[in-house]
Amino acid sequence: MDWPSFFQSIANGILIAGLYAAVTLGLTLVLGVMGIVNFAHGEMVMLGAYSTFWLFSLLGIDPMLSIAMSGLILFFIGLPIYRFTIRPILKDPPLNQLLLTLGISIFLQNMAMMLWKTDSRSVITSYSGMSLHLEMVHIGLTRLITFMISVVLTVLLVFFLYKARLGRAMRAVSENNTASWLIGINVQKTYLLAFGVASGLAGASGALVSTIMYTFPMVGFKLSLKAFCILILGGLGNISGALFGSLILGLTESFVGTYVPEGSGWAEGISFILIMIILIIKPTGLAGTRRE
Amino acid sequence: MNRSFSWKTVILLSALAIFMIFYPKIVDSYFLHLTVATFLAMIMASSWDILARTGQVSVGQAGLFGVGAYTAALLYQRVHIPPVLGMLAGAILATVVAFFLGYLTLRLRGIYFAITTIAFAEALSVIWLMTPRITGGAMGVSTPPLFNGNREQAYYLILIILALVIFVVWLIESSRLNFAFTAIRENEEVANVMGINPTRYKVLAFLISAFFTGFAGGFYSHYNTYIIPYEVFGLGISIACLVMPIFGGLYTIAGPIIGTILIKAIEEYLRVTFSYGHQIAYGLILVVVVLFMPEGLLGLWKRKIFPLFKQPHRV
After folding, report:
1. Domain span at residue B125?
2. Does B69 touch chain A (CB under 8 A)?
3. pLDDT tens figures, B298-309
4. DSSP of A135-171, one letter per residue?
5. Min distance B149 CA to chain A CA atoms (Å)
6. What is the CATH number of the domain that holds B66?
7. How many domains does chain B have?
8. Per the confidence metrics, is the pTM higher than 0.95?
9. Is residue B9 in a domain?
10. Any chain A CB within 8 A of the CB of B10?
């Protein structure tokens, strides 16, 4: 067996899984707290990637520094989106919520096409080409940094949800919003901030996306579908499930990319095939939790 | 609802039929082309609405459209089958695909079905790109112009299909299927208890929807003379299929038709004005409709203009 390429596949899979996890975090938060599958989440990631790209190419700000800025920008984009579109339909049937967020997603995709055309853009920094050589494996420096930042984002979110007052309020609201209201939690404000934080996470992960993928208007949609696949793999609305799902998807794509002829093209289709197979076999998703 | 026509309806319908038959003589070629495109979209919108009547939202009509388009184009390219037969073959293959997909996934509730249909269309797009020897790959497939580029004949063909779709929708509306579909949409458990097998009816609705969407795909490939996977399996087509009927008003004959005419007009204007992103209107309309006019334009019409005559009622 060709061990170097085997280990290389594992390393690549784990590294890309970090990025996928970062993209899925915000989606999980919104789904967990308010029970909405936000189709526009990928477009928030796309906007985060574009803001990083422009900060880099116009002002020369390093993408790793603009993660916080992209996050903040998207946080403030997320607030009005929640207030004027999501809030009125919180109690609507899931399909209406789907159509609304799908509408926002289409709107943002096409707005990006109008503003920035359909060109693929990439952020190339002075350290983009560098890589580390361990025993048999090559690890791109940019990929390693994005992976570590994804880990940091995940840890921060977990700390926020379990230690911070606001984060605990979010968990309380996701358990039972009436009871939370009774004990004095401002449910509306909690929803608003949860959506804002989720959008901010999307913006931050968009910054990571811009460094290792091409940035183009449809990149968010592609990532949305991968994130849905991850949710279905790992169970809806919990962070550990999202991490598990990301790892499975990342490794599967990476192994298909290495061992199947013309694998990198086929790897793009893995998430779609997984979505269909899992839902057909087990209609509630692999982990079996169901939120409607 | 009853099946008997009043004289007024018969006269109106005949007048409309005569107008439609002589229509190509009174408009110029560009406008005729727009009309063909609009009729094609109407077919897709009405087909989507048939499935929506059972409470299922498909976001992957492009998958069926693409199967129809490629079947017709590839059959012509490989064995020179006459275009209309190719379109029919495309429609049949799309129906077969829908049977398997629907049978496996229509047990899924709303949002899962929607996500599966997107995944289906995108998966087909990847498969098409990766098997260029069979499918033509990213280069696409081209065919000679339909009817040697005679737009009038193309117009009559699409007119016949559109009339057929509307007739089928009317048949559904005036038969017992309407009750079954509505019952499943309103409450699946109750429908099940009443002896309606929800999955069976949903699959039936999906098959009808797929047949016409597949035919539309076949027509598109020959009329447009050139198809590529990104386009025929693309999100844009799936979105168009669902926004037009939602905008016009769901579960009606007129809703998808009116929605399509208005959206095509807006889209054509934007297409001329902006070089990219003219589907922005679809997103905006979807958001506005869900937030402010859940029954679409027809709902607004009923509520705001005729409230004195008739109480708005829900089926």
Report:
1. 23-282
2. no
3. 877 776 555 444
4. TTEEEEHHHHHHHHHHHHHHHHHHHHHHHSHHHHHHH
5. 31
6. 1.10.3470
7. 1
8. no
9. no
10. no
